[in-house]
Write a structure and sequence with these properties.
This protein is mostly helical. It has three helices and no strands. It has helices spanning 3-10, 14-23, 42-49. Helix 1 crosses helix 2 (14-23). The chain starts with a helix and ends in a 16-residue tail after the last helix.
Length: 65
């Protein structure tokens, strides 16, 4: 699977998916035009799906005062 496909599958921006892949050991493929794409496996997708979300969640007020 490509990073773009994972992004579309889980509704997350490509940059966030690529950052997660880099920080969590997703293997890289052969260079294409100087870019080494990530090669996502089903196990990688499962780990990404179970990741702990962090930060502000959309629709929830930032200040709970």
């Amino acid at each position: 699977m490509t990073t773009k496909e994972v992004s579309e599958k889980y509704g997350v921006c490509i940059a966030a998916v690529a950052r997660w892949a880099k920080n969590n050991g997703v293997q890289r493929g052969k260079p294409v035009n100087g870019i080494m794409p990530f090669e996502w496996t089903e196990d990688d997708c499962r780990r990404f799906e179970q990741r702990q979300g962090k930060g502000w969640k959309k629709g929830v007020p930032r200040n709970k005062e």
